[in-house]
Write a structure and sequence with these properties.
Blueprint (H helix, E strand, L loop, with lengths): L1 E8 L2 E6 L4 E5 L2 H16 L6 E8 L4 E8 L2 H15 L4 H8 L5 H7 L7 H11 L29
Antiparallel strand pairs: 1-2, 1-5, 2-3, 4-5
Helix pairs in contact: 2-5
């Protein structure tokens, strides 16, 4: 899953998901979300792939964080790696060298979505193609809408 944001700029709603290079706009928030879905699906460019973009949390009156949920996480990871490598003007050989791989084919398999990286491996790959990007895990703010999150058994409220 990815985090993006949508905010109002004059008459337009601008939608951005930086890590995959998705930038678009719409005349309404709903149109900006639809356009963001389309851009992400075009970036992934795989038959059967779909993305679901929905509001995660409001960041003010005219700004919203959105959550991008892919139908195929490996395909989305591949698109992120491809985009970031191209954005940083790295060749497959450059990445392979940085990873200490004898062949660029091992890395290229991740970019083609033929191999799904483990979380640790994805972090390592991102470290090479996009060193300024970090991988953050955390609870979604809407994970438990309308209800209180249950405490683990045996925990006490302070």
């Amino acid at each position: 899953m990815l985090i993006g944001h949508i905010e109002r700029h004059g008459p337009w709603w601008v939608a951005i998901c930086d890590i995959i290079g998705a930038f678009t706009q719409g005349r309404s928030k709903a149109e900006a979300i639809r356009n963001l879905v389309e851009v992400i699906e075009l970036r992934v460019d795989r038959a059967g792939f779909s993305a679901d973009v929905r509001e995660l949390s409001k960041q003010g009156r005219h700004s919203v964080r959105v959550l991008v949920e892919p139908s195929e996480p490996a395909a989305l990871a591949a698109a992120i790696l491809r985009y970031q490598r191209a954005h940083h003007r790295l060749s497959l050989a450059d990445v392979a060298r940085s990873l200490g791989a004898a062949s660029r084919n091992a890395y290229a398999a991740y970019e083609r979505g033929e191999r799904e990286p483990t979380l640790g491996k994805f972090r390592e790959l991102l470290g090479v193609v996009a060193p300024e990007v970090t991988l953050i895990l955390g609870a979604r703010t809407d994970a438990f809408p309308g209800s209180r999150r249950r405490r683990p058994r045996g925990s006490k409220v302070a």
